[in-house]
UniProtKB/TrEMBL annotation, chain B:
Protein's recorded name: Molybdopterin-dependent oxidoreductase
Ranges for region Disordered: 266-295
Organism of this sequence: Mycoplana rhizolycopersici
Highest classification ranks of the organism: Bacteria, Pseudomonadati, Pseudomonadota, Alphaproteobacteria, Hyphomicrobiales
Key words, A-Z: Heme, Iron, Metal-binding
Domain of life: Bacteria
InterPro entries in the record: Ald_Oxase/Xan_DH_a/b, Ald_Oxase/Xan_DH_a/b_sf, AldOxase/xan_DH_MoCoBD1, AldOxase/xan_DH_MoCoBD2, AldOxase/xan_DH_Mopterin-bd_sf, Cyt_c-like_dom, Cyt_c-like_dom_sf, N-heterocyclic_Hydroxylase
Annotated ranges, domain Cytochrome c: 784-887, 929-1037, 1065-1156
Amino acid sequence: MVAIPMQINVNGEARSIEADPKTPLLYILRNDLALNGPKYGCGLGECGACAILVDGRAVRSCTIPLSAIGDRQVVTLEGLASGEELHPVQRAFIEEAAAQCGYCLNGMIIATAALVAAKVNAGEADIREALRHHLCRCGTHMEILAAARRAVRYAQSERQAIATPEAEKQA
Amino acid sequence: MIRDEEQHGSATPEAAGLLCVYSAGADGRIYLSIDQAGVVRAFNGHVDLGTGIRTSLAQIVAEELDVPFSHVEMILGDTRTGPDQGATIASETIQVAAIPLRQASATARAYLIDKAAAHLDAPRDRIILDEGVIRGSEGENWNIPIGDLVAGENIRLEIDPEASVKPVSSYRLVGSSRPRVDIPAKATGKWTYVHDVRIPGMLHGRVVRPPYAGFDHGDHVGNSLIAVDEASVAHIDGLVAVVAIGDFVGVVATREENAAEAARSLKVDWRPAPHQPDLNSPENALRANPATPRKLADRGNVDLALAASPQPMDRTYVWPYQMHASIGPSCAVADYRDGQLTVWSGTQNPFPMRRDLALLLDIPEDLIVVERLEAAGCYGRNCADDVTADAALLSRAVGAPVRVQLTREQEHAWEPKGAAQVMDVRGGLDLEGGPAAYDFQTRYPSNLAPTLPLILTGKVPPVAEVLQMGDRTAIPPYAYGNLRVTVHDMPPIARASWFRGVSAMPNTFAHECYVDELAAAAGVDPIEYRLRYLHDPRAVDLVRAVAERSKWVPHTTHGTLGGEGDLLYGRGFAYAVYVHGKFPGTAAAWAAWVADVAVNKKTGEVAVTKVICGQDSGLMINPDGVRHQIHGNIIQSTSRVLKEKVDFSSTAVTSKEWGGYSLITFPEVPDIDVLMIPRQDEPPLGVGESASVPSAAAIANAVYDATGIRFRELPFTPEKILAGLNGDEPIRTQTASRKRWWRNLGLSVAGSVAALSGLATMASPWRPAIPSIERPGSDVYSAATIERGRLASAAGACNVCHVGNDGTPFAGGRRFDTPFGAVYATNITPDVENGIGGWSYTAFERAMREGVSRDGHHLYPAHPYTSFAGADDADLQALYAYLTTQQPVAQRAPETRLKFPYSFRPMMAGWNAMFHKAEPFKYDASRDSQWNRGAYLVETLGHCSACHTDRNALGAEKRGAAHLSGGFADGWEAPALNAVAKGPVGWTEDAFFDYLRKGHSNQHGSAAGPMADVVKAMQPLPDSDIRAIANYLASLNADAAPDKAEAQREAALAASNAAKTEAARISPRGERIFNGACASCHGDDKILSSLALNSNLHANTPDNLLQALLTGVEAPAILAQTTGREAPEVMSMPSFRQTFDQRQLEDLAAYVRARFAPDKPAWDDFAAAMQRVNAAPH
């Protein structure tokens, strides 16, 4: 285990790290960058508690070696909001009270954020499939599903809001 | 430390301007404080386990005090000042622990009103406290915030048990849904869980647990450690300490990954764990467990009634071991300095744990501060206390704060389990179809599970205490005239403690299935039958309400809902009141279920499609909170009933992750309809567990309704249901084995010795040394030559074998296990002493072409000089130039010492005479230059055949048809590169190119193991060379063509898809492991190519699959970074070496073989494959 200096891009900022390149990214995010969003759940890529976005895709930071990140864009739960304004998926989860203990919440929000970005018309089956490998033990599934549906609606109305002025311009 | 003060502020009762309410007596504990800003801090000894009591308790305080909800801050489980209210168990926070808090609030309110009355000189009945402000009842212009009444004074009150509380009718806050106060912070990453505590100078610890995983009593406990080899981790950066006390072993390092690495690498010798009774089918073990019968009820004459019953029905119901399965493994931070201890803990029991820590460390309790922070939800006792004690021991050892994070495997293996339980019912019908008698016996092997480090260190003897915990809801709710209830109090077998529903859930499983069986036998609708014997009016109301809500259709036989296709539909009912605490206990909320199921008669899968659940909770403080608890209970208990069971080996728990212990997933979650009975005028009841309790019986009764078969043992896995439906057992297919060359080696060693001895005399065994030279200067070679050498080195992937164990290029030392013994790669840096710095080109060339070292000794053909012999002079010269201009490394690689007779190197001369042809590569004039370039690279510098060709008994590559038809390397099978290849899709030029260039072909999958290193090493080669190699290799696969390959790919995917059901039938446990552990990356529609395309699944042996599972696969990530390949996978496959046992690997292998290579026979002789793979270095 030899620590070497590296740079990674997290939540829009270049961050300097000195660590063994094999170190799981999760430890870097939590211990070196003090980001508490991603949580250690299994270390095996099974439960999704440590999910982050890498170039917009939801991945499990416990199984990503630091060396694999290169210049890809890493976004954690902390990086979803723009300033004081919450990400619509975060808003949806808060409004639906979609947490009991909340330990899995990071993964649920990240997975939903990736889903709504990739598929604006995501239906019930898409939502359940996107969350299939995200485990919740408290049984918050009903509230999480409601939050994900709400997040899809938010994404759709946002898309419409963007589309409408453009359409007007074209007209 | 990074923490939100607002989350965990603490009152300072001594500060100026504070009103505090304490419990009675000189040593009273604080329950409430109000400061001059009007901020209310309320203390409760119970903690929030994820249920939202932080919010509900604040509602109770705000209501009773008449202050705004936002002014109340809850401080839970604070050991410095807050009240000791025992462990947060039995759903009793609202029902029990909130009572003094409410009284404290009423006390403060009365005081404030009195004080305002005095201050304003107004009658008390004119004073109104409203939203934290004193006002007048007749519009007086008073406007005094309560903080003003406190300002400048220190007021100490005692809780007045007589202080009048508000009537429910005037409640405004209580009974209305309030958003949870914690969720916004949790949804933005701002909440501080115990896992997120960081304090200055904090080190990271990991523990290493003994091999008797999940068992906590017996003479071996605390006495199994033989030795800890500290040298085995001495090389790890930042290692601070290795600590061993009894069977407690831990490591501390400056960085978390280094602590984790040290815990994985630490060599610990343990005595073998003793054998345990079989807990996979726990009935026999529980019956054999020593027990003391305790009679809870005996009325009527049970024996007489049973003897007289015309239709006796004796039934046994079995509950498996289950686990809390917290999503976050437990974590704690401890800071032991100067004989004082502070811990940051997710404990359920701050006060009892403090007593444990005092005992563990031999310090007085009052020198210990427990800072309680939220952790991942637990539903009973998980490892939160254990890890706090672990951290305390490690912090004491190093004199610095230490954070300890348990691994997933440790939490699974060691958490105190929800115990198995066996319930026997003897009964039957009387002449009128009523219940003749009910003779109920229950066995529940559990206690409170002593904190693990206390036992591991010998502070507490490893003796299994017997507790009376099997009696929860042991009394059935029905008015059976002849009733006998006996609890067999018994010690635990596996480590066990309370888990949601405790013994009530299994007891209710028996009660509610049995009454259903009685109804069916009597030919009466199951709800109607229950109502005949259910006399509790609130229970009757609830049952009727739920029946109505579900549109229950009375029926007297099963099967009335029919089915379609392979599905059978059924509907079941169950009811329970959860009784907790010491017998006869306290009743929490009443709950009743109607469950709808669809049973697939072909696969045995049970889907719970809808649950209608009614609950009478009395007064609901926060109705939304109650609803969420009901949802949570329904989903969690459905998961437990359908899926959950802890697996054991003969010595330990083997369910150590989410494949070995599966939880319900989103697609399986049923529709839920919750009916909350309005009872706001009744006292509040615990709602944390009640809705779980009827689950198992409701689902079992629904499965009976669908199939006509009673299933009396959980969980309802497909194989269990299928066996019940078919009356047979799942089949494991067996097929004949195919032998492999080196397994026959034992037989041929004698022959090979004779052959080698004879040959040794035939050739010239002694070769002269070539004099050493001055190390060539680095300016001798042109940049172009060195560059050509760099590419030659890339083509030869020299650094894959010659890399130093610490990653230093060309430093040598890697060990290769061959059938003849271990061979170590040499140092090929230009170091004169240890490397090839003193080698002339002549010496280098002789080593490369003839396999003779500079000093004249023969090299073994692990160095593939048989391939290099054909290399162009210019390439070898350039390679020499490149290597001799690298950084010298003064490090000697271990010497290869083969077993006799192979240790006699001169014998290699005879070997060479037989097997080595030192001749230049022959170009084929009939082929184009690209093909020839590829052939040259493959057959000489690339030495592909060294791994991809089978070897004979003497370790020489076979010739003819065997060439590139598959071999072995480094414990991995190197698959055939020609048409003999086993994969379902032919290898086209493009596929070879993608694979070799990017480490991944979407028609085949990713490079792993040694091949991943080769792909990485070949990165400097230009695309044209990779293309040439691909062109040549594709020519060996004449049948492969792009359109054909695409068709083959689609056919393989379709076949695999069609094989799902059959594969699950062949290996149901394997399917669960795959779904839980593998499918998050290897499931359908994931970014990785389907395993159906991966040649390793189609190979003759599971060696490569096992290699990937045990060592992990790092390649895709490495390649993703450097090549930006089309599938931007950045995740690596983790190693499951410390996670799966052999049985799990075998189950998984059986499943993936049947699922992804359905046309291939099942792998046999799995044990031999395990042995081979384990023998390979890792």
